Amino acid sequence: METANQQFFRTFNEAFVRADAETILASVTDDITWRMVGNDTIKGIDDLKMALQGMDQGHFFEQETECLITHGKQAAINGTIHSTDANGEQRHYSFCDIYKLNKHKNGKINEIISYVVEI
Description:
Blueprint: H1 4-17, H2 21-26, E1 28-36, E2 41-43, H3 45-52, E3 60-71, E4 74-84, E5 90-101, E6 109-118
Parallel strand pairs: 1-6
Antiparallel strand pairs: 1-2, 3-4, 4-5, 5-6
């Protein structure tokens, strides 16, 4: 059985696969920092809103979560994402996301570090 924090992070992580910007934005603080290792860093909820506008580009995503670990105000999730574009072309990625909450109980995410590698 998952803890409340594990359910929160699983739902948040899966919101990206569904292009559910509403759930994503409701789960983060206004001063969110999202560092995508090897790419850009998003700072603030306004920058995150802009980044999320390009999420649904006719791709179909499936996610397999391999491991979800929570401890206090932190969590780590790793797994695989399978992407299929409108032409049927598939791509596969291995990911690991590290999250930090602003507080332990009923907290919101204020920091994300993402590692993504195409496989």
